[in-house]
Amino acid sequence: MCGIIGYVGNEECAPILLEGLRRLEYRGYDSAGVAVHDGTQLNVRRAAGKLTALGDSLARSPVHGTTGIGHTRWATHGKPAERNAHPHVSGDIAVVHNGIIENHVELKHALRAKGREFLSDTDTEIVAHLVDIETTAGATLFEAVRATLKQLRGAYAIAVISKRDAHTLVLAKNASPLVLGVGDGVMLAASDVPALLAHSRDVIFLEDGELAEITREGARIETLAGAKVERAPVRITWSLMQAERGGYKHFMLKEIHEQPRAIEDTLRGRVSWEDASLEPAEMGISAADVAGIRRVVFLACGTSFHAALHGRYLLEGLARVPAVAELASEFRYRDPVIGAGDLVVAVSQSGETADTLAAAKEAKERGARILAVVNVQGSAIARMAHGTLYTHAGPEIGVASTKCFTAQLAALTMLAIHLGRCRDTLSADRAGALLREFVQIPNKMRTVLETAKHVETVARSILHTRDALFLGRGLSSAVALEGALKLKEISYVHAEGYAGGEMKHGPLALVDRDMPVVCLLPTDSTLEKMLSNVQEVRARDGNVIAVVDDETVAKDLATHTLRIPPTLEPFTPLLSIVPLQLLSYYVADLRGTDVDQPRNLAKTVTVE
Ligand code: G6P
Fold it and tell me: Ligand 1 centroid to 299 CA: how many Å?
């Protein structure tokens, strides 16, 4: 996730671009840059680090002009560094980009064969080259961008500026957001509305497959195929604060709703949407590495540990390799037996958690291979690992992890399918069937999100409870743990997650009519056993809230049901966690807690 801004008007634009980027910094903050046209040439300025570094650089030596583009970066390809910061330049062209160009490797090969040289490790730089080739051959900037887009596969929002035209920007969108701001003799473009509000409240949302040319006079919008698009601006009435959260009351709620996109971005470039195949080169682990694996050890903390449990179940199931999931904070202090032949998968959204980092380092010193599954490019765990499988959830601001968790589930599911194929424990047919379902998951998640209002009603019914239990078996046991963690961390309701089979060994003693018991009952291999556990709860008058993909399953058992669409077993957690996140969110919000910054907790824990 990155932030884009563009301005064509009458004022000095560098301060306007910087201010816009400040409003977009939530989308990424590892480096930033601008390209400003001074009437004669393009001046590009970039800086690694937070936006203040770019601000300082521009204060020391300003760039002047009334047309420009800017970018704040959240690294996906290439580590955070000035040379990878946007804009990227080729000839007369400068480009900023948000998204992932899936076919960048083949395009880069082809461009190199034509003698083009690359100055960065990004996928974006190819876009600058492709547009430059077209304009050099005589195309207008608009047509050059159109011709370039036809060669790209993947997600993008781009803004392009040319040295040859001091008063025009060209923009395009596919799967990444882009919105135009209409002012009086001024046009802007940005990844999100807050960046525009200081200059315009009348905005035009671009749709996928559209490109636009903006000048002071207005916008010309067309589809890639060349059809004209007439779209009236809509008036934004949100306050700036509301706009930063995309209109949601809290970042957590916004991030819950961003999950389908986070999954799509995590799969992008690794699973082909067309033929549902896997792209092994993007998996962070080679076939040779796989051949030497005796055992897989997952190391993680908190929510990431719950994702690790999911990874462990799936890896054993699909790749038939012994796997364990360990709390990093425990692993370090018990003289673990680990070494050559062990693949350690360190799972961490921040990539900075002190315990996970130290545990992975210790395993590395003892000879294990380390694969990082992290969300932050260039983070400490990614740097020390032998290979990294990045989740592409974008920056997560709410302390309680939601979209990073489901992106981790998705990444670990891909890993399990990949290892299953490499080890030949998973047939091509079965892998194909799994991958075909995998690409449906984002849309199925969207249908779960549509039930938010109903989940809020259920939340209201348990609002004053002191305790809650969450039960699941098999793959759903990790979901039960995560559901309980979500509820306790943001609403301060005491909640426990249990493997269903453990109920009768203790927690059953707690059950009475006041106890909400959230039961995960998807139609899977553990359903029958789970139903017996739920009977035990009902027999003690427990208040059962059932997560089901088939309403009839819990008909006489549950006070409330939370519906998810049916899916194949490995993907159930990706859907069943969503109503639980929403349930926690609404309980917390209705109780009036500080949802995004719960008391005593931190987003990144760098102490042991
Ligand atoms: C903190 C955060 C959690 C997170 C855990 C592990 O407790 O509040 O949301 O799950 O750290 O963090 P990591 O960055 O390693 O995933």
Answer: 12
Q: Does residue 604 form part of some domain?
A: no
Residue 424 sits in the same domain as residue 463: no
- Which pLDDT score is estimated for 607? 66
How many domains does the chain divide into?
3
State whether 175 and 291 are in the same domain: no
* pLDDT surpasses 90 at 178: yes
Q: How far apart are CA 56 and CA 70, in angstroms?
A: 15
10 Å CB burial of residue 594 (0-12, 13-18, 19+) is exposed
| 491 vs 509: CA distance, rounded Å | 24
Q: Is this model's pTM higher than 0.70 or not?
A: yes
What is the pLDDT at residue 243?
72
Q: Tell me how crowded residue 534 is: count the other CB atoms within 10 A of its CB.
A: 22
Q: Exposure string (b/e) for 565-592, b if CB count within 10 Å is 16 or more?
A: eebebbbbbbbbbbbbbbbbbbbbbeee
Which two structure tokens, joined as six digits, stand for 389? Answer: 């499988």
Rounded to 10 deg, the angle between the 572-591 and 475-491 helix axes is 20
Dist. CA 294–CA 608, nearest whole Å: 29
Q: Let me know whether 323 and 283 are in one domain.
A: yes
Same domain, 60 and 195: yes
Residues 138 and 161 in one domain: yes
Pick from 37-46, 209-218, 349-358: least confident: 349-358
Output DSSP code: residue 5. E
CATH number at residue 426: 3.40.50.10490
Concatenated DSSP letters of 154-199: EEEEEEEEETT-TT-EEEEEEBS--EEEE-SS-EEEESSGGGTTTT
pLDDT above 90 for 45? yes
Q: Is the pLDDT of residue 194 over 90?
A: no
- What's the confidence (pLDDT) of residue 524? 92
Active site residues: 2, 603
470-503 tens-digit pLDDT: 999 999 999 999 999 999 999 999 999 999 999 8
Domain extent for 475: 449-594
Instruction: Decide: 606 in ligand 1 pocket, CB within 6 A.
Output: no
CB distance 402 to ligand 1 below 6 Å: no
Question: Per the structure block, which two tokens stand in for 392?
Answer: 């592409």
* Separation of CA 246 and ligand 1 centre (Å): 24
Q: Whose CA is nearest to atom 8 of ligand 1?
A: 603
